[in-house]
Structure formats: C-alpha cells, structure tokens
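Dear colleague,

Following up on Tuesday's group meeting, I ran the structure prediction for the two-component complex that the binding team flagged. I've pasted the input sequences exactly as they went in, so you can double-check that nothing got truncated or mislabelled along the way. The structure tokens for the whole assembly follow below. Feel free to forward this to whoever is handling the docking comparison.

Inputs:
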Amino acid sequence: MNHKTKHSLSQRWLIPVCASLALHGLAQAETPAQANADQPSSQWMTGFPPAPERIIRNSDADFFAGEKLRWTVCHMQELLPTKILHRGLKPAVNLDYQLDADLASVSFTPTGTQDSMTWEQAFTVNKTDGVIVLHKGKIVYERYDGCLDEQGLHASMSMTKSLIGLLAETLIAEGQLDENALAGDLVPELKGSAFGSATVRQIMNMTTSLKYSEDYSDPEADVWKYSQAASSMPKPGDYKGPRSYFEYLQTVQAEGEHGKAFAYKTINTDTLGWIISRNTGKSVTELLSERIWQPIGAEQSANFTIDSIGTPFAGGGLSAGLRDLARIGQLMLNDGKLNGEQIVPAAAIKNIRRGGDPKLFTKAGYSSMPNGSYQSMWWHFHNANQAYAARGVHGQTIYIDPSAEMVIVRFASHPQAANAGSDPTSLPAYQAVADYLMK
Amino acid sequence: MNHKTKHSLSQRWLIPVCASLALHGLAQAETPAQANADQPSSQWMTGFPPAPERIIRNSDADFFAGEKLRWTVCHMQELLPTKILHRGLKPAVNLDYQLDADLASVSFTPTGTQDSMTWEQAFTVNKTDGVIVLHKGKIVYERYDGCLDEQGLHASMSMTKSLIGLLAETLIAEGQLDENALAGDLVPELKGSAFGSATVRQIMNMTTSLKYSEDYSDPEADVWKYSQAASSMPKPGDYKGPRSYFEYLQTVQAEGEHGKAFAYKTINTDTLGWIISRNTGKSVTELLSERIWQPIGAEQSANFTIDSIGTPFAGGGLSAGLRDLARIGQLMLNDGKLNGEQIVPAAAIKNIRRGGDPKLFTKAGYSSMPNGSYQSMWWHFHNANQAYAARGVHGQTIYIDPSAEMVIVRFASHPQAANAGSDPTSLPAYQAVADYLMK
C-alpha cells in the first residue's frame, strides 16, 4: 500500500484503516515487498518477542500488503477492535467427509495460457490459505496453508457483502423489508444524501449513482475520508470529519440517475447494513448469528471489524472459519435448507440465483467476468452451470455451482488485491473440478 | 478514571490503556459519574447509531469507569485488539444442573454492619453481571444481569493472573520449569532488571522487591510508562519509550531484597508470562487453550487484550465465559481432574492449595483478608474451610471452598475498583452459602 507519501508520521492514527480499504475490494498498487510474497506466514510474529523485522503492528503502513498480508489475513482481531458473531452454544452440525484423492490432480488450462496446471499446483500459485470442495453436501477436498488451520478465522473481505445481501433478501422474502422502498424513507438521516432517493434494490445491486471516488492517487479522494470516518482508532484532537460509517454515508452525493449501471462501491453495502439494522433493531453481527451462524450449526464464532461506535463493517469486516463458509455455500446450493431444515426462505435464495442484469454490468468492464452480473451482492457468471459467487480481494471466494452440486470456498492472500490476478488460475480450475465431479 | 487533567487532547492515543490499568487491579479514583452507576448497561451503545450521549469509544477517557464500566466489561474486544484463546472444535463438556431455589434467600451479615442481607440482595448491591454456584460439581445457582448473558464474555481482570499461576505450577509439576531458577537465567534479556535476580517462585508469589510506583497522582509514576508500553494503539511519532510488555519489563529496577514481603504488582505476572512463553515456545493464550480450555470442554473461546506486538496481557487481559471459569474452579476443587480425567497434575493444584506465607502477606495490609496469603497468584483466606480464590478488580472472583465442595464464580462491575468495596457484601455471603450447602 503505497500511500506513505501522503501521510506524515504524525498522522499514523490513519494507517490502520488501510485494512478497511483493502477489505473494500479496492485495487491496490503493487509494492516492492510483493516480490517476497513467498515468505512463509509462519515466520511472522513468532518468538517471545518476535525478531524486530518479523513484527507486524497495526501502526505499520504496510500491514495489509505484500508478504505481511499472508499473516494479517488470519489475525484481524489482533490488529483492530472487532465485534463477535456468536456461533451459539450448541454442538456444531457435522459436515460429512468423502475425500477424493484424485481431485488434486484434476487439470485445467489457466486463462490466457496454453500450459495446463493441476488443482494442487493452483493451490500454491494462488497463495491459498485454505480451500474446501463440497460435492452433494460432502467434503471431497480440504487443505490449509499459510496462516490458516481448521480452527482459524480468515478475513473474508468483500465476501462479507454477499452475506449482507443474503440477510436483505431474507427480510424481503419475509415481507419485513420492501425492495422498492427508498432508503431515505427507511433511514431518514439518509434523505439529504444520494442514498435517500435510491431503492433498497438499487443499493443491493449497486446500481446507485454515487459521487464517490476511489482514486488512491488523489489525496482528496472520498475513499480517504471514508477511511478516516471508519477507523476505530482514536482520532487526533483536531479531526472534524465524520466519526462513523453512518455519519459518512449521510455526506455522499449523487452523480446522475440511479438504476442505469452497475458500479461496485462498498458504501452501498454499509448503507444496506444500516437499513437492515434500522429495520430489525439488530446489528448485522447479531442478525447473522441468529439467522445463519446458529441455525447452520457453525463450528466457530466469527467476528467483524467495527468503526469507533461499534458498527460492524458490512462492506468487508467479516473474519470466519473455512468450513463455516462452506456450510453457508451449501445452504445456498440447497435453496436455504440445511439438514432438512428451511433456514433461509427459498424465495430469498431464488432472488439471488436469478442473477442481475448483464447489460447494467457490462459497463463496469470486468475482464474475467465478460458475461457477468451482480445481484443482491452476489457475482453471477451466467455460464452453462449457472455458477455464482461471493468474492473478495486477494482471492476470497464462495463459488456455488448448482449444476455440479458443488461448493468451493477459498481463503487466500494473493499479493494482487483485484481478483483479476488470481481469476485466470481459479475460475477455469473451478470449472474443471465441476466437470470432473459431474462425470 | 480521573487523569484527563494529566494528558492533553493531543495525547489521546494513551487513553485506551486505561483499560489495562484498571485490569491491573490498581486502585482507581472515584469520579462523579459513579453516582449514576445504576444506569442499566442495556442503554449503552444501543440503536443505529446510539444516541450521542450513550456512545462509548475507546478514545473516551472514562470508558473504564463509572457507569460506562457496566458496558465495557463485556465488550473489551470491541474496544481493543485481542488475541483469541481457542476452545477447540469439539462439543462442550456438559455441566449438570441441580438448581436450588432456596439458595437465593440464604442470608448473611455484611462485614461491619448489623443488618442481614440475602444472597439475592447482594447480587444487586455488588453490581453483579453474572454469578454461578457449583456444589459437588453441579450448578445449584446461576444468574446473569447487566451486560452479560450465557454466551457473553466478561473481563476477568486480575483473575487472569491466577490462570497464569496455574500454568506455571503445571510446568513445575511436569519438571519443565524450575521454581528456584532465576528469571535472568531463563530469559537472559531480564538479567539487567530487578527480575534477573528473582526466582520463578518469588515472581509467582509476588515477593519480588521492585522499584515500581503505581501512584496515579504522580504523572511520572512507572505505571504510566508501563501503560504507554502496553498500549496496542499506534504511538505518536515522537514516542521513544518501550513498545511492548517485554521491552518495559527489562527496565524495572530492584528496590531491596527479594523474598522479604508480598507486594502486589502486576508486572510480576507479565514477567511470569514471558518466562512461560520462552519455556514452552507458546503464547499464554495458546497454552491456556491446549492445557485448560480444550481439555475441560469449554463452551466458548475466550480472548486476551494484547500489546502492539501481540503479547497477551498476562496480568489482566482475559475475557471469558462465566460457566467456563466455573469449569476451571471445579478443576481446581477436583485436584486437577474433570470428568474422571487428570487434566492438570495433582501436584500443581496441591502447590497452589497449600497457600503462601501469611507473615509475608501481613505487611501489605489487606483489610478484608487479615489472615491471607498469596501463592502462585491465588489468594488464600486461611479460614476454617481453607477457601482460596482468583480475584480481580470491580468484584471478579473464582472462589473455591474445598470443605463445602463449592465453587462460586462472579463477574461484576462494581464502581469501586478495589475489592475492599464489595468484599463486605461478598465474602460473608460466600461463607453463608458454604454453610448452607454443608448442612
């Protein structure tokens, strides 16, 4: 993260928000440190004390970049204040195993190349920290590396958004939330902002039109002000700006008409989180606990990073266990049922599965998703298998393939933030595994 | 906490360490806010956003004092970076219930008064957030209030020390750690400090002689420097002092001969934590997970606050679930066995249970423990029942009464930090319940 130049040392309080920025799914400049991204994460922060050059502090400008990322993604709670997402106190619901040793050697041709690569090779190439494959509800492949093990939590980045989208669809299916309502009517504080005139559906599908710049090279870009507002670190005495997600969102102005194009901006999800919390009287962590984590029998509590007034970062704050996200993928695949119980309304999943409008999506120009769409904060490939996914920077995904009855969850710490970096060695691999499983 | 006057607004980065200070078990000046300590904790931080006057931020000087304390004790993870203490992934080991409805009306006479009070009345008077009574291993009483419920975590304050003491006794019983070894031989970095010439046993029993002032009225007191070193918040650019527990501990100088008197100083426990981690190659969170939380079948993962290099605050950083501390109390009562399994060596518990030297303790002058002693970071009453306890500021306790086969765990947010505030309405209550159960 190359903005050291923009902030003097006396502004160090700002630096921890870089984590929030990266979680937003925003692109990130490559730094020289990334040349060493092969450094095993196990060498960070080991020893009592760790060697000075192996220490990662929340005040380090680069704690969310380069090789440090490989440690940081598993240790958000040690760097920032977080809010727990309770699994409850009941025993976890078991996930059955039917491991398939041959899956490791399934091969595919990475996009834009001619040389084939195996699933196992792609694991390393993609800086995978953990990956699990479910077929017909059973675990056929599972592997950990880097900073992650089976009882670890990993930053989910923008996959968080998809779970917020799932909550919204659930409330809509239950008749508790109107997708056509204006955000300004649901949260009156938003009336003076761009969100005031946007519908819940436009916010859910990110077809709002917002004057909001994520240009890192511009010190005056909105994203910096957002980061300042979002930081949970004590602010300097002379700070006069917004001090929470909610305060910031009220300042966002429109830039044209809503509903005309998809534009991926994290602030939509934080607005959706606000709408959901105002609607239910619960934080998104409480709601995810009650509606998802507890009913699916999650095996680990998760957590969210928060702002200085305890608001969970709906746009990207979740850290969770790999198998728990696999349970959620399976829940999606099963139209909201898990172990025979209807946990989420089938209509909610149906609304997500139908996908968004590819015409609105095209203008955004995602090279690895030429026919894609975005619906309820889920990414749709519109391929033969009707696969769709939750996606987060640095390679995070919950990939759901209904035709192959397959769920893949991957946590990674790929040095390139944008998924364009790992999609060529991931998306064809997922398709190859689907083809293999469907044989 | 009334030190706003000492720090300018530009030094706000310091303020979050107040939490560490209070956790140390250090006395704390009463503030006017404490007059309102009856404020229900449920009114803090509720709503989206909460009303401005109901927000608690980590930058608030008083977040660990007065009525705010009643919320803060359950939400350390939302205010500061923390390190998880994993419960593991297995189902929790059940605790059986045999509730006794009559226990609530057991009465006792608070110390220094003539009027009797019931157990139920004392619950409220002591600002109890949660209390559980085990008799012969079964839950006979359990109640929650304030910010706590059965799936919540609560700051354990200096009870943390007793668990570190238990770890040290375990390593000693296993022959892995020599109680007569000098800390300077075990951790060479400590050679130039007061700890260098202290034995492990002297550190465990806090009979070290340390030049270390905890006088809050003195802006130059060592405790402020310790707090600066311990803070996990980014430090100002001009900060030149120690940046971790380990760096600070090396600077502590001696003030006389070790072994002559008990003097309660938290830095002993952080030194013991360092010795344990150097000895085992594991953080105290990892070790508590492996040695205690996982084997006892804890139902919740816990966490520790940490310094800026991830070192858990051995002296007071634990937040845990009420029933999990009850399981640990029962483990102590059962000489290290739980559900028929020897989890901790019996010799370790025996070493703790024999108590310390009351002669060394007397000089410290604890009014509510006139015949007490301190052994392996556990407090001994040397009463007829040979009761002993883990104790933390604001009313935290694990009270173990071997004669009555009783364990009481209490989490509280009593406005007075020193336990002298709640001991008069607590210690006689514990004895009365013991008498009742032994009938």
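Confidence is low (pLDDT under 50) at residues 1-39 of chain B.

Cheers,
M.
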